[in-house]
C-alpha cells in the first residue's frame, strides 16, 4: 500500500469519525430545548444500557476484522477473509438478535434499579418503554460493524466514513423531527417523544447499512476478481479464525465499554443515593444535567485532543517494534504534549466560564453551572485514558488496559453511593474522576515499565502549559466580568452566547499568542505553523 493511499485513507476515516462525533454533540442542544432536564434523564436511561449491549454484541469487531482481513490479504489469502465475512454476517445477525431479545425482555427488570415509582419524575413503566424502543437498533448495528471492518481490511475507508456520517445524520433528523412532531404538533407526552428519539438509533442504522450495501454491490466484482487470485496455501477452520479474531477484538471491546460501564453504575445508584439524603425530588434533573447535558460539553475537548494525538499511535507502534528507543521517546513526548496542550486550556476555560457556557447551550441553571465546573477537569483523564490505552495496544500490552479499567470501575462501584451521599451530584463526578485517574496512573506506569520512558520532560512542559493557561485565565476573567456588567447579565441564552464567544475567543487568542511567543507551538507542531515564523522574519526585516 503506498504511503499516499495510507494517508488518504487515514484522513478519510478520521474525518468521518470526527464529523460523526461532532454531529453527535451538536444535536443535544436543540434536543434539550425540546425535552428539558427530565426528558434528558429518561433518554439516558434508555441509551446507557443500549450502548453497553452494543459494545458487548460487537465486541470490538470493526477493528478486529479489519486487522484480520488485512493480514491475510497481504499474504494473498483472500478466501480466508471472505470466509470470515460470510460466517461473521450470520454470527453478528445472531448476536444482534440475542442482544435485542435480552435487552427487550430485561427492560422491566432493569427499570426498578434506575427509578422509584414515588411520584417524582419518570416512572418504571416510562423507563421500560424507552429501553425497549432503543433496543431495536441492536438488530442491525452488529452486522453494520462487521461490514465496516471488512472494507477497512481492504484499505477502503470511504464506506466506513460515509456510513457513519449518514447513520448519524439520519438518526439526528429523525430524532429531532420526531420529538418536535410528538410534542409541538400532536401535543403528545414526553415519554412518547423520548421513545421516538431512542428508536431513531434503529432508523439511523438502516441509513448506515444502506450505504454499506451500496458499496458492496458497487465493489463486489472487484472483490471477486481478487478472490480468483487467492493463493490457497493456508486453510483455517472457523474455530481457528474466531480464536484469532477474539484475540484481536477483546482489548478493543473492553476499552469501548469504559464510558458505558461508568454511566451504568451512575444509572443504578444515583437516584437512590440522592433519595436517601432527601433529594429525590430533584435527582432526575440532576442526573440529566450530569450524565447527559454537561457530559456532552465535557467530551468536546476530549474529541479534539484525541483526534490529533491518536494519529501518532501507528508511528509509536512502528518505533516500538523496531526497537528505536530514541524515536519512541520522541513520539510519546509528542503524543502526551499534544493531548495536554489542547485539553488543559479548554477544560480550565470551560470550568471558568461554566455559568455562561451551560446557559449558552441549554439554559441558565445554578446546578448546571456547579456540575459543569466540577466535571470539566475530568476531561483530562478521559483523554489520557483513551491515549494511554491506544499506546498500550501499540506496544502489545493491552491486557494492562483491562486491569487498569477494572480497578477504576471497582472504585466507582464501591464509592459512588458514599460520595453522592456526602457531596450530592458532585460526588458522582468525584467517583468518576478518581476512577479514571487510577486507570490512567496504572497505564502510565506500565508504559514506563515496558518502554523505559520517563515523564520528566513532559511534566515540565505540562507545568509550562499550566502557567500559560493561568495567564490566559487572568486576562479572560476580568473581561468576562466587565461584559457581564455591561450587558446587565440576566442568564439569557443570547447574552451567554456573546460572553462565551468573546471570552472563549480572547482566551484562545491569548493562549495561542503565548504559545507562539514561547516557541511551544513550533516545538509541538513543527512545520505546520512555520509560515508564522516566516511572517515574523519579514516583519522584522
TrEMBL record:
Primary localisation category: membrane
Recorded GO CC terms: plasma membrane
Listed CDD domains: MATE_SpoVB_like
Keyword entries, A-Z: Cell membrane, Membrane, Transmembrane, Transmembrane helix
Annotated transmembrane regions: 12-35, 47-69, 89-110, 130-147, 168-186, 192-217, 245-265, 297-317, 338-362, 374-395, 402-420, 426-446, 458-480, 492-514
Pfam families, per database record: Polysacc_synt (PF01943)
Subcellular location: Cell membrane
Membrane topology: Multi-pass membrane protein
Protein's name in the database: Membrane protein involved in the export of O-antigen teichoic acid lipoteichoic acid
